[in-house]
UniProtKB/TrEMBL annotation:
Residues 134-196 form the 4-vinyl reductase 4VR domain. SUPFAM superfamilies: Ligand-binding domain in the NO signalling and Golgi transport (SSF111126). Pfam families: V4R (PF02830). This is 4-vinyl reductase 4VR domain-containing protein. It comes from Candidatus Zymogenus saltonus. It comes from the Bacteria.
Length: 197
C-alpha cells in the first residue's frame, strides 16, 4: 500500500476535528476542514472507533491548512494542543488506556504500552529507547512535517500526545517532552524524548 493509500482511523480524525473545534471554535474548525477538502466531516464527524476514515494524505492536508491559516509559529501551539486534547479525549471517551491503567505495570511499562496503543489506533510511531535507555517515541511516517525543510523540529502534535501519556504514566510535572530529531531537519524520522522537569 502506498503512502497515499494509507488510511487514518476514525478516532484520530475525530480527535483532530474536536480539538480544532475546542481551540478555534466552530467557524475556525470549519475553515481549516474546508481548505483541507474534508469539510463534510464537520457536520458528520467520524465515529470514535478504529475503522479507516480518510487517507493519510488528507490528514496531512488538515495539518498543512492549520499552518496556512495561522502561520508556522501559530500552528506549533495549535498542533501541540491538538495532540494533547485529541489523545485525552480519546482516552476519556473510548477508554483506550483502561486495560493497562491498574495492572501493576511500572511507569516505564505503562508509558511503553500506552505508546503501543497509540500506534495501534493511528498507525503512526512506536516506542523506542533514547541513548540513556529511557523510553522514547519514534515516528518514521510523520505527516506533520512533510514538505518542510527547517533548522528546528516542528512536530508538536506528537509532543502533545506524548506529554499526555507521560503525565498519565509518570504523573504530572515529572517529564517534559522534546522532539530531538525531525524529518523537517533532514532526519529519517521524528524522535521524541522525555526530559526531567
Amino acid at each position: 500500500m502506498s503512502d497515499q493509500e494509507k488510511m487514518a482511523t476514525n478516532m484520530s480524525i475525530r480527535a483532530i476535528i474536536e480539538s480544532l473545534n475546542d481551540i478555534l471554535g466552530g467557524n475556525g474548525a470549519r475553515v481549516i476542514l474546508k481548505k483541507a477538502g474534508v469539510d463534510h466531516l464537520f457536520n458528520a464527524p467520524p465515529n470514535n472507533d478504529w475503522e479507516p476514515c480518510i487517507t493519510v494524505k488528507d490528514q496531512a492536508r488538515m495539518f498543512t491548512e492549520v499552518t496556512n491559516v495561522l502561520g508556522l509559529t501559530g500552528a506549533l501551539g495549535i498542533w501541540r494542543r491538538i495532540g494533547y486534547l485529541g489523545f485525552k479525549n480519546t482516552v476519556e471517551i473510548a477508554r483506550v488506556l483502561d486495560p493497562i491503567s491498574n495492572n501493576g505495570l511500572s511507569p516505564d511499562m505503562k508509558f511503553i504500552k500506552g505508546m503501543e496503543i497509540y500506534r495501534e489506533g493511528t498507525g503512526k510511531g512506536g516506542p523506542a529507547m533514547d541513548e540513556n535507555g529511557r523510553p522514547a517515541f519514534d515516528v518514521p511516517e510523520c505527516v506533520i512535517c512533510e514538505g518542510y525543510r527547517l533548522d528546528r523540529p516542528i512536530c508538536s502534535s506528537y509532543e502533545g500526545v506524548i506529554q499526555y501519556l507521560a503525565n498519565w504514566a509518570y504523573g504530572e510535572n515529572v517529564y517534559n517532552v522534546r522532539e530531538k530529531r525531525c524529518k523537517a531537519m533532514g532526519h529519517d524520522s521524528c524522535f521524541f524524548v522525555l526530559e526531567k522537569k
